[in-house]
Amino acid sequence: MKNIIKSTLTILSVLVAFTSCNNGSKSSSKSGALSSNVAEKVYVAPGEHDEFYAFISGGYSGNLTVYGLPSGRMFKEIPVFSQFPTSGYGYSEETKPMLNTSHGFIPWGDSHHPDISQTKGEIDGRFIFINENNTPRIAKIDLKTFETTEIIEVPNSAGNHSSSFVTENTEYVVAGTRFSVPIPQRDMPIKDYKGNFQGALSFISVAPETGNMDIKFQVLMPGFNYDLSHPGRGKSHGWFFFTTYNTEEASTLLEVNASQNDKDFIAAVNWKKIEEYVNNGGGKMMPADYAHNVYDEHTHTATSTMKKEVRVVNPIDVPGAVFFLPTPKSPHGCDVDPSGEYIVGNGKLSANLTVHSFTKMLEAIENKKFDGEAYGIPILKFEDVLAGSVEQPGLGPLHTEFDDQGNAYTTFFISSEVVKWKLGTWEVIDRKPTYYSVGHLTIPGGNSRKPQGKYMFAMNKITKDRYLPTGPELEHSAQLYDISGDKMELLLDFPTHGEPHYAAAMEASLIKERSQKIYNLEENKHPYAAFSDEEVKVVREGNEVHIYMTTIRSHFSPDNIEGIKLGDKVYFHVTNLEQDFDVPHGFAVLGQNTSELLIMPGQTKTSVWEPTKVGVWPFYCTDFCSALHQEMQGYIRVSPANSSTPLKWSLGEDIE
């Protein structure tokens, strides 16, 4: 008997070994991570391009990072709300105004939720918008140049979190406040929060051709916390939905006091109705100080304008415009499926996942099926707007996105997993663990009418043992899944910079053919640009010295400068004369207390230098540009303040 058992075990071992050897076969089923060659699925050969761009928020870095999918390679960090010495953003004279606010120059931001512009509910790849949470702002990045071209501050707001999601024709980008505050701001006891604080939901219009932003109106809501939001689409176009928590209006120990009510709300806002009201003169203008910063790609210079008022709307003045949908307590994500019928409210403290029906919502409104009101806003009955529930899918639901097959994917923070479930039947189809404590997830086009992706990636808050250790602080982890089959398949871990909160992704074909290669010198309207040696000059205006400088492989003009004195403020206006793709030049001078500059082909940038010591100080190109890059340098002579040394410069010859 023992021999029979041994023989059987031997045969089984051989079969297992044989099967294992064939797990990497391309012809095998795609039902699990071991059944296919995962490395092949994420490999992008040298010279080939990724299928998708992923734009991942940097959180406390204040910036936006660009990755390729499926490779997980980081291609670029786009500076948005934080100074960035790599390019000189926020340091150069041209870009300093981009970080101006009503609180002064703010060199840092907390970026959370990017969203891509849409046309007819489909991603169009023109612009990407992203919010700043700490000092409330919305930024626009032009995806032709991958540069931040506009930032508008949001008044009457604090914790600009339920942002920056766009309507399906990019009519508006929304900016909802997380923290309610006194409006207008005033000195008052914090204990008097309830009934005195308000939450502002800002609707920022976007010009169809240029993308220029302007605050059209703000809806002044009850003093709840407005967490996340999404626009209606398809049948629900014209509505916007916001999750709320702290409907208790507690002002202390929120982890306890803001979890007393059995349900919080999703606020449903009919922005079309409010827009009509405003267009007919409704609302009132309220004094408000906020900055509107715009970068001109022809002058290569930003300007900052301080605005003095904003239009506000009281929702009870527009009957039928705002309703509350009861939702299990402390909801986070507020996600609308591609058809616009289903609104998913992820109650973090609920055992089930709640889905509301837009059709039922309209019926309940028409039939006045209300369950009371909050500050004059009708509360709909929970059972009358409920489409269905996903029963006990996991613990701590946060965020949901959708594919083009009628499936939804939800992250669960506490149970550290992504769960796939079916819209309409509410059945769980699949679940996969994440490592660790997943926050949001993204599917290319997954928050539009036309999801594009065969991939989904989850953004995890903790990394621990996923990568080589780098001391007590680790980069966060994203995990890429193949969702083209019935079962999700984990393909790749890749580290992400800062603390990603959300991401937007799209097919690369929407952008890469339109990506700008150079700035045409003929279109350069910078007032201090120089385009030839004849235009190179050094001009003194009192204690200001303006140097009109050019750079091209592999020299600066001028390359030597004398006559600078202690107490001078020296402006280096550097124009890159290259007209070839991917040939930037850098500029730095010893003792520079801002940052170096990185100047793109055809572009002009300015750095200010205030010398503190007498001497001869070198400047040089910081970006390796040619075989003679090391020779790309010059000197600037600084004399005492009372010196009579004349202002002179050279274009390759000695200064006499």
TrEMBL record:
UniProt-listed Enzyme Commission number(s): 1.7.2.4
**Keyword Transport set for record:** no
Give the UniProt keywords, A-Z.
Copper, Metal-binding, Oxidoreductase
**Cellular location of this protein?**
Cell envelope
**NCBIfam families reported for this sequence:** nitrous_NosZ_Gp (TIGR04246)
Source species, domain of life: Bacteria
Which species does this protein come from? Answer: Lacinutrix iliipiscaria
Q: Which SUPFAM superfamilies did the record assign?
A: Cupredoxins, Nitrous oxide reductase, N-terminal domain
**InterPro entries, sorted:** Copper_CuA, Cupredoxin, N2O_reductase_N, Nitrous_oxide_Rdtase_Sec-dep, Nos_propeller, NosZ/Cyto_c_oxidase_sub2, WD40/YVTN_repeat-like_dom_sf
The opening ranks of the lineage are: Bacteria, Pseudomonadati, Bacteroidota, Flavobacteriia, Flavobacteriales
Which PANTHER family does this chain map to? Answer: CYTOCHROME C OXIDASE SUBUNIT II, NITROUS-OXIDE REDUCTASE
Query: What is this protein called in UniProt?
Result: Sec-dependent nitrous-oxide reductase
Output one GO MF annotation.
Answer: nitrous-oxide reductase activity
